[in-house]
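Hi Prof. W.,

I finally got the dTDP-4-dehydrorhamnose 3,5-epimerase prediction working! I wasn't sure whether to trim anything, so I left the full sequence exactly as given:
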Amino acid sequence: MDYQPLAIPDVVLLTPKVFGDERGFFLETFRQSEFEQHCGNYQFVQDNHSRSAQGILRGLHYQLRQPQGKLVRVTQGEVFDVAVDMRKDSPTFGQWVGALLNADNKQMLWVPPGFAHGFYVTSPEGAEFQYKCTDYYAPGDEYSMRWDDPDLAIDWQLVGDPQLSQKDAEGLAFNKAPSYATTPAF
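And this is what came out:
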């Protein structure tokens, strides 16, 4: 596995080694010891799988009391995946990074606790999105921030008007969204 820190170095793009021939392929998607060496000492407690049609935008979501680190990947289709630094004491507070994740490149993105996360489905056939979480989902602790906030100026690589849930359409502006007073410690 190749681990590449992005412009916000705590967010890491993982590219697996793929072994394939005319019969198909094999790849290792996770190895705890390597992950700890390159991303930190985190344990995953929950796996999730979603399917979304083209044009769906989910996010930007985060939790404050039970912040989730997420290791995300796409197993069908393509998404533009985004992480926004919500850690007030971070030199990259309020900055974002993004990566195109798809079934062909088989890349994964590590989004640590302390970040808001979202994705936009770019592929016509939709996308299947899978992710591991470092904490359990806590419905009463979830925040949604506006995907189109001008202070963030995220280039979502839109192929049309995004479709949003009501919760995401009513998301908070970045300057009104609660942030982490300190970087979550794990």
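The domain at 2-17+29-175 is CATH 2.60.120.10 (Jelly Rolls). Does that look reasonable to you?

Thanks,
D.
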